[in-house]
């Protein structure tokens, strides 16, 4: 056969493959209300939690720790120039609602934890966007402090009634009041002149500190003051929103978390025992969903910063039944990839209790953790089992019993070649400081291969993931700073399933 003929055949075959790939991409649709963060009219909210995902006590003059910045854009012509107004849907009175003035939301609620839930529902109703197949609400910024006063018996143990116990080093607490909510401040979204000629930027932010006696305006520069901020910015009519995150720990608040979440519009999101509201209209299911975003990490947060390239959360019972709010039998399930290259590898052949019982390769081959020649120990940071599981394979490692209202199961993985086929980083340092990237992660297919506990002789659960987020958890290390931006976020699901 002539060389020219072979070239023509290869060219035709390549074009066919290209067409096939294009049609494959067209088979996926966005599962979220704001695909790629490109909508001018923004919907964003912020929530804060203590160690066990409750409120406990509102911070002075802050109201319940739920706020929102939701607006539509009104385009109009003035003096032959195109102008815009931002029509805000949530005002300062809404954002400062708390248990003291609870009659605005629900006068029958006297419980601070349940009031925060109702306030989220109230803010969501003001921000709601009517859409198909269902309405959606907002991106959720999540704050959390790991401080826990063990003597106060504030957090249930694996969903059971809390009991006091002596303070332990794994739970930081400076004394009475260490589980306080942060101060929360807000720069409402507004328009400013852009750098480009004739361009307009939209910008807003949430910021604050857990140090109730601190000057928040000096939180970034003052030594030993905790601080957080999230600023969003977008050029009017172009591109994606960029969310700029900053988190700083202190000696009093050394364990802090900051995430940007896309939660389901209804149902139980990962880590919660009540209905939530969010951005995800179609809850993604393993193995058929992908997550796309651009991540640029400026500061990592120190060696104990568990920076999650992606964290997906769900909830199902050990027998495979869906969660129903019963905190003793519900189990939160997390799959998290940590990309901080300083992260220690706890799962080793000498410490198999820190590893999942099995690893399943992309081709379906399954190996046991005792198979020292084939089990990819370096692919895992740690695996821990739910505290209410009854049929665990020994040796095992229970998850923290207090940091969720119900028991939890956590799978933390690290960059490794076994995850490359799913689009995840294959070696430590990829995507880290100085290496900004746009990722398209086959999170659905990977999450289907991961081990999660289920009672013997029960039907394998369909794995739905109502919470997908990224950000960092700086674990018990004061004086650390993390800084990063997220843009172009999207969750893709098959158009027909």
UniProtKB/TrEMBL annotation:
Q: Where is the DUF7705 domain?
A: 29-493
Q: Which GO terms describe its molecular function?
A: protein serine/threonine kinase activity
Q: Where is the signal peptide?
A: 1-23
Q: Which InterPro entries match?
A: DUF7705 (IPR056122)
Q: Which UniProt keywords apply?
A: Kinase, Serine/threonine-protein kinase, Signal, Transferase
Supply the PANTHER family for this chain.
Answer: EXPANSIN-LIKE EG45 DOMAIN-CONTAINING PROTEIN, NEPROSIN DOMAIN-CONTAINING PROTEIN
Q: What is this protein called?
A: Serine/threonine protein kinase
* Organism of provenance: Quillaja saponaria (Soap bark tree)
Lineage summary = Eukaryota, Viridiplantae, Streptophyta, Embryophyta, Tracheophyta
